[in-house]
Amino acid sequence: MKKIGRNFFSLLWTGVRRNYDNLDDNIAKHLGETAADSPVEIHLSKMFSDVFKRHTKDQADRLFIVGTKSTTPSLQKVSSRPVKPWFFSRVFLVLALSFVMLILLLFLFKSNKAIPGLIFIGSLAVPFSLLMMFFEINVYQNISVLQVLTTFLMGGILSLLVTMTFYMMLPIRSEISIESALIVGITEELAKCIVIIIFINLYKLNYIFNGVLIGAAIGAGFSVFESSGYVSEYGLVTIFTRSFQAIGTHTIWAAIIGGAIILGKKRKQPFTLNDFFTKPRFFIFFLITICLHTFWDWDIPHTGLSVSLLQELIDVIIGWFLIFVMIDAGLREVKTLQGQQIVIQRSKKRLVKKR
Description:
membrane; mainly alpha; metalloprotease; 66% helix; PrsW
């Protein structure tokens, strides 16, 4: 039986590994303006291949000078190659090491002065690192670091203000039933969605990667300030759990919504209230994020820690799959706007790119 089980798992994994890159593309190709049978050159399995490569200081410096009139490339010069972010991993490494040193300061030297820094860095590490990843992925390079940080701070706080305004009008119970989890999911995702729309319209953004980045900035800000606030309610141990859970929560959900907003609006036109209710490509993704949030918060009765961890794992997998769909759709958009035919390359196939 064990041998049969191993063979079955091996067969299943082989099928998933061979078809995963195609699965997200099959979804993404129906979101853009290309023909339904147009392939796209993207290898998500290699997306993080540059993380472990050596990079120069000049390469890192170039990432931070984008978004100005003199450094924003023309559309024809925008890179349509598969995205391979790497700098975000260095940001995470610095923040993670800072977190560890603060832990040592607290527990070895009994210094309570380390607690505020521990709360801040612990809340910041994962969301901000994810934000930097989406900043690298924005191949249009039309959003500056200043705009990202402004959106991160102001957008994150504004989304919390909108959330608390909604909470004052809705019946939120202390226990996490499916009903309460659903109300929380609708409230917080709607609040973030409203703020993301405000910033996308304010910056007059029109590309999927732009929407994903602005959404990630607002979601990361929301995550950082919310996690910091939970410490006063549940104690310092909250940071040791929420800091790493952030890999699949607010930053990811808001990035999905940001991309969906671009998909739902007319190009070079602001997103309107009418778009909110009449554009299926937006509304489906918005409903999915509400479902992901609800599922994450739902405390299923008569279950233990293992079920809760399984819920979170499922949530993370689905959330990141949708992020990959957005990345795929974003690359398709670049190719479409540049007037190129999109070609997919497989290890066992060699296809010629046409213009």
